[in-house]
Structure formats: structure tokens, C-alpha cells
């Protein structure tokens, strides 16, 4: 995750969190509003039911007592009948805790037969004056734990009040029955004379009840009915209403299950928000950790776990610019390491690379860092100033260390050859790390050519040579566009036909600034830079056009050989490009022979076989070039379907006569090639003696300065 991605990731995660919070808050508010509305409605309905029941109960009881009082007036003189009647009516009326007749002197005849004097004198006296009255709360005589109210109805006979009928009842029991039968939810309070007579909540404390009653009584002073909003957020309402005989009924919505569910849901939403927040934070921290891992991966070689090219540049810049310290870069290259991969396998090659990394990491006592920046390229960075001699001594020791044998399977050993470049970096230098690394790479390339020591120190002379090389490369990169490349042709002579049968096309470069440049100098650079693909296509095209022209001018069987590099042959689009060239030039496939070095077998034998087979299928013949050098093996002759075998000139250097050992080897090669159906072409023929020996041993064709050096097309045509 780059520096520009971190703020973006933080913004995205923040937006996700904010959107989630806003959504949940809105969802919670919506649900809470709906629930609060339902609680408000249900609480109001419960209050109405309780108040209505209190009014209905009071009115019904008064009516019933008035009817009883009329009958009592008839039997009042018969005490036994009166007692029996009161008992009978009391049993029929469960609402009343007790019935009793109060004589004018205040004595009460209770329905259960007990006698006692009235306690509520004021209520009794008002009833005696002809009014229906309701007493204040008092303790029930038969049950001291019960607070009751008495309805007193005057008993009239002949237009005169002869006593009072008293009905005692507990309003709290009446309300309790109502609340028990209803499905509506809430806590019901019944208040009389500033006293909480009843509450439906078993767990309501006395202090809470007293507080509620005071709140309600204060509100009643303003209005006989209404709503006290205790907490709107939690839908905590206190509904109150004055009912029959100044009884105050109130319903508290506190503890309503729906609101308790909303409270639980609130914590649920808080949990979700917390989870989203933690997830966002965790995701961001994971991204930071992933970024660090990616940064480490970008700066670390996967195989050896050493620093790579990026890390090397950073460290060099750090020491030179931040720490203001000099340092020394030592680049060690394993010579021809890919050969180990080819014969021992990549797994063994990886093992050796890891061992090299370990040796270099543990090699020096002084502080140093080790890097792997390429296939077989390792770098040791030494902070601090060193003289050239000190740097070379350290490099020599490191090279000797790497060249010690490596033990592999079955106690076999592998020995590596190395070459190294050295670059001391002074704090006064204004160049950057990339330039320093380029310098040490150049020094390492120069060390490859040395024979006395396996290392080269980057000096002013090398810097000058590097600048010349850069100019050389720059000129080379534009040479094709400036049409500075030319094809020369060297004839190939056939013993059997006694004539020139073909030409080998050879690339030449004549630069206006550099003059005629040797192929040994620029062709390796073409291959290293990859320009050989484009230049190689141009060579094939030019050769095809030239041989087509020669054939049209009277030499229909003439063919031209073209050198094809390993990079060309192994390129995925090589065959299709060759087909396009044949179509464009109208050249016959049999007019071309592609010369391929045996190094292609080492590079990728399977791919080489596929490509050579496809070329043969197109009608283009192939030749194994420079046979006898490098990795020569007779098995190569049968591995790929070549039609021609070009034998390297090195055999002719040792040729003293037809009976020499070199002649015997050549005779064997010719015999094997003949048995495989391959035409032999002997390169480097320069003398009459070479010609005679080769003719005697049965060589098919020859090529060399004895006949002609490579010449321009017009001179080649004259040779025909």
C-alpha cells in the first residue's frame, strides 16, 4: 500500500464507519419513536381503564346501598331479621369488605354479628343529616392490615333518617383485580389523601412511591389529569387522573417490556457500532501491517531473504546522505552460474545461492550488509571509509570464501568461480545510489576479462571507459534507424560440386563517429540489450531479399545462411515473424539456412527442439554452428534435427597433415555427420594444406579466407 493509498484507505474505512453509525442511529431512533408511541398509547389506555373502573365501581356501589337501605327501613325494628339480612347481602356482595347498620347513637351492627362504634364521625354525621358520604381511609376493624373506605347511605323511614347503612370496601383490591385481568403494561398507582394506597409493582420501593405521589399531587394542582414526562428518550411517562371521590389513579410506564427491549436493542446497536469501529481499526492496522510486509517484500530477495536491489539503493542513499558516511560496495558475480542449474537442477542451484548468501552474511566481523540483486549477483555493503588496498583485500577474501567447495548430495562438491567489482563512495560525491551501483556493475563486468585477479576497482580510468561504452551503446541503439548496418557475405564452397553453393551473411557496422566496429564488440551488446531481436529480423529480411535477387539473376539453387541468436530462437513470436518476412520478401524457404550455436541446447533444449522442428516444417534448413567449442557433445547432433554441421576453425589450428590427431578427430566428425545425413561445413580454411586435408578426409563443404573474406553483396556476386 503506497503512501497515497493509506489516506484513501483511512477515508474509505471512516466513511464506512460513519455511514454505519448514521444508519444504525436512524434505525434506532425510528424504532424508539414507534415503540415510545405505542408505550404512550398503552399507558394512557391503562389509566383510562383504571379511572373508569373506579368511577363505575363507586356509582354502582352507591346504587346498591340505596336499595339495601330501603329494605332496612322496613325491618329495622326486627333486630334478628336485620342481622340476617345484612349477613345475606354481605355474602352476595364480594366487593364490600363488610356491611353494617349504624344506629343514631353511633353503634354499628356488622354483618358478621359484631358490635362496635363508628370511627368516622364526620362521615356518619353527614349521612345522618341525609347525605350520601364517603369516608376518608381508615383501618378496617375486622382486619387491621387493610385500609378501607366506607360509603354511608342514610336510612329513611317516614321521611326521617333513622340510621345509616355503611358499606366498607378496599379500592386497592378492586384496582388489583382490574390490573390482573388486563394485558396492558405499566405500573399502576392508587393515591388517596396524599397516601399511596396501592401500587401494582411488587418491587416498587416506598421512597419511589412517595416521590411519585408528590409529583402527581403537584401536577393535579395544575390539572386534574395529564402526563408527566419523566424521560422522553426512554419513553418514561407518568399518566394521572382524578377519579371517583377524589381517588387519584396513575400509571407509570417505567419498566414497560417494550422499552426494556429498546434498551437492550440500544446496547445491541452500540455493540454493532463498536464491532464496526474495531473492525475498521483492525482493517486499517492490517493494511498497515500488509503494507510493511509488501515494503519488506519489495526490498527483500524471496529465496535468500537478503536485501535486494531496491534495499541496496535505499541503504546507500541512507549512509551517504542521511548519515554523511562513506561506504564501499562490493559486487560479486557467480561466473556462469546458470550451468549449475542446467546440470544439477534448479533446486540444487537455489541451495547453493542460499549458502552463498550465508557465507557472505557471516564472512566479516565488521559491520556489513549483504544483498542478492540478480540471479548469481551478490553485494556486500561496508559502511565507513576504506582505502583501495583495504577494499581489495576484503574483496579477495570474499572471493576466496565463495570459491571454496560446496557439498551437495552424496558428498559431491561444487566449486564456483567468481568475479567482483569494487566501488568506494565518498561523502563528497554528488551522485545517487543508482549511479554508484551502475559503476560497480561496470567494474564487475571488467573484472570478468581479467586473469590475474578476480576483481576490478572502479577508478577514473574505468569511469572514462564506461562513458565511452555508454556512447558506444547510444550509437549502437540508433545504428539500425540510421541504416549504418550492412550485410557482408562469405562464400561456402562445395567439394562435390566444385563451386560456391551458398554464402554466410555476416553483420557489419560502420559508424560515422566510431568508424568500422568489430562484430566482437557490438554483437554481444546487441544480445545483452535485447536489440538483437529487432536487428535479427532485419538481417533475415535483408538476406532473404538478397538471395531472392541472386536466384532471379541465374543462380536458382543458391542459399544464404543467417546466424540466429539464442534470444531470437527462444522468443515466443520468432516463428510468426519469420513467416511474415517470407511473405513480405517472397523468398523461398529453401533459400535460407539458420545457423544456431550449441549453447541453445544448454539454455532450453526442449524449446529449441520445438523451434527447430517448426523451422524445418516451414522449409528452412538449420545448421549447428561452431561445433567443437563450448559444450560440444556428439549427442547434440542427434538431439536436434539439423541438416548442416559447421565445424569450428579451432580444429584446423592443430591440423598438421592428414595423419595428425586433429585430422583423425575431423574424419570421425565427418563420418558421424554423414551417418546422420548432415552436410559438414569446415570453417576457417586459410591455406592450401587445409584444403587438401579436408578434401582427403571427405569434408563436404568449406569456408574461409582461402577463398574469400566476407565481402559486400556486389563483390560476392562477382565471386559467383
Explained architecture:
With 720 residues, the protein is of the alpha+beta class. The chain has three domains: 1-298, Beta-Lactamase; 309-458, Reverse transcriptase/Diguanylate cyclase domain (Alpha-Beta Plaits, 2-Layer Sandwich), CATH 3.30.70.270; 476-719, EAL domain (TIM Barrel). It has 22 helices and 28 strands. The strands form five sheets. It has an eight-stranded mixed beta barrel with strand order 20-21-23-24-25-26-27-28, surrounded by five helices. Helix 1 (5-75) crosses helix 4, helix 1 (5-75) packs antiparallel against helix 6 (257-298) and helix 14 runs parallel beside helix 16 (574-585). The model has no long low-confidence stretch (mean pLDDT 84).
Give the class-level CATH name of the largest domain: Alpha Beta
Strand share of the residues? 15-25%
The geometry reads as rod-shaped
What CATH architecture label of the largest domain applies? 2-Layer Sandwich
Task: Give the end-to-end Cα distance, rounded to a whole number of Å.
Answer: 67 Å
| Tally of distinct domains | 3
DSSP strand tally = 28
Mean pLDDT: 84
Structural class: alpha+beta
Radius of gyration: 58 Å
Poorly predicted ranges: none
The helical percent reads 40-55%
Give the count of helical stretches: 22
Amino acid at each position: 500500500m503506497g503512501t497515497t493509498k493509506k489516506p484513501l484507505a483511512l477515508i474509505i474505512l471512516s466513511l464506512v464507519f460513519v455511514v454505519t453509525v448514521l444508519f444504525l442511529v436512524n434505525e434506532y431512533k425510528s424504532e424508539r419513536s414507534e415503540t415510545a408511541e405505542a408505550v404512550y398509547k398503552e399507558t394512557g389506555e391503562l389509566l383510562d381503564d383504571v379511572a373508569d373502573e373506579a368511577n363505575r365501581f363507586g356509582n354502582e356501589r352507591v346504587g346498591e346501598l340505596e336499595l339495601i337501605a330501603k329494605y332496612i327501613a322496613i325491618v329495622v325494628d326486627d333486630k334478628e331479621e336485620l342481622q340476617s339480612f345484612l349477613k345475606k347481602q354481605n355474602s352476595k356482595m364480594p366487593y364490600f369488605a363488610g356491611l353494617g347498620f349504624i344506629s343514631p347513637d353511633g353503634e354499628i351492627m356488622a354483618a358478621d354479628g359484631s358490635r362496635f362504634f363508628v370511627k368516622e364521625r364526620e362521615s356518619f354525621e353527614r349521612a345522618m343529616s341525609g347525605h350520601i358520604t364517603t369516608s376518608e381511609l381508615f383501618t378496617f376493624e375486622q382486619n387491621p392490615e387493610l385500609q378501607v373506605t366506607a360509603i354511608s347511605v342514610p336510612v329513611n323511614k317516614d321521611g326521617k333518617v333513622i340510621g345509616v347503612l355503611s358499606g366498607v370496601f378496599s379500592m386497592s383490591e378492586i384496582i388489583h383485580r382490574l390490573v390482573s385481568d388486563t394485558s396492558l403494561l405499566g405500573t399502576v398507582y392508587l393515591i388517596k389523601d396524599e397516601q399511596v394506597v396501592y401500587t401494582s409493582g411488587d418491587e416498587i420501593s416506598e421512597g419511589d412511591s412517595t416521590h411519585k405521589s408528590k409529583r402527581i399531587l403537584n401536577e393535579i394542582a395544575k390539572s386534574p389529569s395529564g402526563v408527566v414526562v419523566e424521560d422522553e428518550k426512554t419513553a418514561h411517562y407518568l399518566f394521572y387522573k382524578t377519579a371517583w371521590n377524589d381517588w387519584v389513579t396513575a400509571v407509570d410506564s417505567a419498566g414497560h417490556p417494550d422499552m426494556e427491549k429498546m434498551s437492550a436493542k440500544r446496547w445491541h446497536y452500540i455493540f454493532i457500532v463498536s464491532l464496526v469501529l474495531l473492525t475498521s481499526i483492525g482493517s486499517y492496522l492490517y493494511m498497515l501491517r500488509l503494507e510493511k510486509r509488501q515494503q519488506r517484500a519489495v526490498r527483500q530477495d524471496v529465496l535468500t531473504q537478503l536485501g535486494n536491489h531496491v534495499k541496496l539503493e535505499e541503504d546507500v542513499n541512507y549512509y551517504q546522505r542521511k548519515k554523511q558516511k562513506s561506504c564501499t560496495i562490493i559486487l560479486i558475480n557467480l561466473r556462469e552460474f546458470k550451468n549449475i542449474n542446467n546440470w544439477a537442477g534448479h533446486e540444487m542451484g537455489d541451495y547453493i545461492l542460499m549458502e552463498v548468501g550465508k557465507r557472505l552474511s557471516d564472512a566479516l566481523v565488521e559491520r556489513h550488509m549483504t544483498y542478492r540483486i540478480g540471479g548469481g549477483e551478490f553485494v556486500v555493503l561496508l559502511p565507513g571509509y576504506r582505502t583501495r588496498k583495504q577494499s581489495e583485500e576484503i574483496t579477495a577474501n570474499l572471493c576466496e570464501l565463495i570459491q571454496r567447495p560446496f557439498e551437495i548430495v552424496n558428498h559431491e562438491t561444487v566449486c564456483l568461480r567468481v568475479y567482483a567489482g569494487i566501488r568506494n563512495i565518498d561523502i563528497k560525491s554528488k551522485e545517487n545510489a543508482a549511479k554508484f551501483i551502475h559503476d560497480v556493475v561496470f567494474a564487475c563486468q571488467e573484472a570478468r576479462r581479467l586473469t590475474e585477479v578476480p576483481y576490478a576497482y572502479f577508478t577514473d580510468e574505468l569511469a572514462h571507459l564506461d562513458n565511452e561504452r555508454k556512447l558506444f551503446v547510444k550509437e549502437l541503439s540508433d545504428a539500425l534507424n540510421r541504416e549504418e548496418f550492412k550485410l557482408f557475405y562469405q562464400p561456402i564452397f562445395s567439394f562435390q560440386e566444385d563451386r560456391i553453393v551458398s554464402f554466410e551473411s555476416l553483420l557489419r557496422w560502420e559508424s560515422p563517429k566510431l568508424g568500422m566496429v568489430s562484430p566482437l564488440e557490438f554483437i554481444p551488446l546487441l544480445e545483452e540489450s535485447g536489440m538483437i531481436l529487432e536487428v535479427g529480423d532485419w538481417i533475415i529480411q535483408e538476406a532473404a531479399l538478397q538471395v531472392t535477387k541472386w536466384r532471379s539473376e541465374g543462380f536458382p539453387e543458391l542459399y544464404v545462411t543467417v546466424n540466429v541468436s539464442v534470444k531470437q530462437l527462444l522468443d515466443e513470436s520468432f516463428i510468426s515473424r519469420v513467416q511474415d518476412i517470407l511473405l513480405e520478401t517472397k523468398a523461398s524457404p529453401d533459400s535460407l539456412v539458420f545457423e544456431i550455436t550449441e549453447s541453445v541446447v544448454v539454455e532450453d533444449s526442449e524449446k529449441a527442439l520445438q523451434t527447430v522442428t517448426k523451422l524445418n516444417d516451414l522449409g528452412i534448413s538449420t545448421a549447428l554452428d561452431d561445433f567443437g567449442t563450448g559444450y560440444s557433445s556428439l549427442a547434440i547432433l542427434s538431439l536436434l534435427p539439423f541438416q548442416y554441421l559447421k565445424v569450428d576453425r579451432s580444429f584446423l589450428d592443430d591440423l598438421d597433415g592428414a595423419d595428425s590427431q586433429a585430422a583423425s578427430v575431423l574424419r570421425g566428425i565427418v563420418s558421424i555427420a554423414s551417418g546422420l545425413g548432415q552436410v559438414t561445413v569446415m570453417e576457417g580454411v586459410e591455406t592450401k594444406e587445409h584444403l587438401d586435408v579436408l578434401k582427403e578426409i571427405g569434408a563436404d563443404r568449406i569456408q574461409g579466407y582461402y577463398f574469400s573474406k566476407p565481402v559486400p553483396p556486389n563483390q560476392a556476386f562477382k565471386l559467383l
